[in-house]
Design goal:
The chain is about 50% helix and about 10% strand. The protein is built from 18 helices and eleven strands. The termini are far apart. InterPro entries: AAA_dom (IPR025669), DNA_Partitioning_ATPase (IPR050678), P-loop_NTPase (IPR027417).
């Protein structure tokens, strides 16, 4: 077949990690948020002048040979059928020969087969260097309705379809992400609450060892903290209807953490309250069990969001192409700067006095993403936002399509929608919207990993 007649590959395949790394900025420090906030202030002034059923069991649908070969595994349909016929031990799908349907578990098995038996020039498995931990991605903005949960959910699903193993942590007591992923959360003990409580309890234990040596009275541990010390990842991580997406869910009682965390901090001023989630991910081996961890945050810069931002390697900030959302996002960056710079200043005075290394928050990459974009009405506004945010901005603007609307009404992600329920062109356009968002995210992800491996090699050398 002539190359020009071959259908184009999805945009997230055959990305070069080295080229992706050249597009990355230097690591982002807290002062960069001040710059972004200042740009937004100028932008505000400029613009002002211009005048499932959640109560049921969720099951992931099957995928047709057309979908698999168009979006998931870069082989021709006829070749896939030949491989299946020649390898009866591989998943054969359900249905008639001309219309086979496969589970995602089947697709993941087929990916592994092609990765070991297929041509080396094709990307059957996504780039993932060995010896480096999972990347933690926080999706945050303190304005509600900007698409945080849908962005996090669709990126998680995109990554799962691409072959990555994903953990999603819902930090919003509204529990929308938990509903999308079909999670069941009985109480706060199946959320991140006991994980942060465990971190505080360990800090108290360490303080008590010091106090014992000095003959001072101990800080008592109540029943909640004693129980939290026994909490393990398996106690809070649950499987979902996606074979390679796990979940730590949320429910209304999680909001209690916003009141309890400052109380704990008052009880032990030396406890770094922002590190509870970071320490869980690092110390409990979670970062070694997954490729990507997505953190879906509440629409507020509270203690749970601060934990998420402190744990994150990559920060994604969704917003709509409107004055109010641009204005709110600028204030969000301003609060990020104020909050984290304040933590740095407060901690580093003590660190310097003790001759210890100073605390410095850094993020690999920060990206603002325009969501629910309508090119016919919002292009001028989006261009203004792009100009003021500069390198903080995703290049691609995520369109709102009929597919997105219908999937949202059903508490589903668009990747869970059956294309047979849509006009084929509608499905392809709707899917492309999120595929392109994922492609840009994936380029950032693999670039960060590649840069990490190069820096690790230099450090080893």
């Amino acid at each position: 077949m002539n190359k020009s007649n071959q259908p184009p590959l999805p945009p997230y395949l055959n990305l070069d990690p080295e080229i992706a790394a050249t597009k990355l900025p230097d690591p982002i420090g807290t002062s960069r948020f001040a710059k972004a906030a200042a740009f937004c202030t100028k932008g505000r002034e400029d613009l002002a002048r211009r005048g499932y059923a959640p109560d049921g069991e969720k099951r992931l649908r099957r995928f047709s040979i057309w979908e698999i070969t168009k979006y998931l595994i870069p082989v021709a349909p006829a070749h896939l059928r030949r491989v299946l016929k020649a390898n009866p031990d591989l998943p054969q799908g359900e249905g008639e020969a001309g219309s086979k349907w496969f589970t995602l578990e089947d697709v993941l098995t087929l990916r592994q087969h092609f990765a070991s038996e297929g041509v080396s020039t094709k990307e059957y498995l996504p780039y993932r260097p060995e010896g480096v931990p999972a990347k933690v991605v926080a999706v945050a903005n303190f304005k509600g309705g900007v698409g945080k949960t849908s962005t996090a959910a669709h990126l998680a699903m995109s990554a799962a379809l691409d072959g990555y193993k994903v953990l999603v942590i819902d930090l919003d007591s509204q529990g929308s992400m938990t509903s999308i992923l079909g999670g069941r959360v009985a109480d706060e003990w199946q959320t991140v609450f006991p994980l942060i409580a465990k971190d505080y309890a360990r800090a108290v234990q360490e303080e008590n060892r010091v106090r014992n040596a000095a003959g001072q009275p101990e800080i008592p541990l109540d029943e909640t903290l004693e129980e939290a010390l026994t909490t393990l990842p398996r106690d809070v991580i649950q499987k979902t209807h996606w074979p390679n997406i796990d979940l730590i869910g949320a429910q209304l009682n999680l909001y209690w953490a916003e009141f309890q965390i400052p109380v704990w901090r008052m009880g032990l001023r030396s406890w770094p309250l922002w590190d509870g989630l970071t320490n869980f991910l690092q110390d409990e081996g979670v970062l070694n069990d997954y490729d990507i961890v997505f953190l879906d945050t509440p629409p507020a810069l509270g203690y749970l969001t601060i934990n998420a931002l402190a744990a994150a390697d990559i920060l994604l900030v969704p917003l709509g192409a409107s004055f109010l959302e641009f204005d709110s996002t600028g204030r969000f960056f301003d609060m990020l700067y104020t909050t984290f710079a304040s933590i740095e200043d407060g901690e580093n005075a003590a660190q310097r006095a003790a001759g210890l290394p100073e605390l410095k928050f850094e993020w690999d990459v920060v990206r603002a993403i325009i969501t629910r974009f309508d090119a016919s009405q919002q292009t001028d506004m989006a261009n203004v936002i792009q100009a003021y945010f500069g390198d903080f901005m995703n290049a691609y603007r995520q369109d709102y399509t009929a597919l997105v609307g219908q999937a949202g009404e059903q508490v589903n992600g668009i990747y869970e929608a059956d294309y047979r329920d849509f006009n084929r062109d509608t499905y392809v356009r709707g899917r492309e919207t999120f595929d392109r968002t994922y492609a840009e995210f994936k380029e950032v992800l693999i670039g960060c990993w590649w840069r990490d491996t190069q820096m690790g090699g230099k450090a080893d050398g």
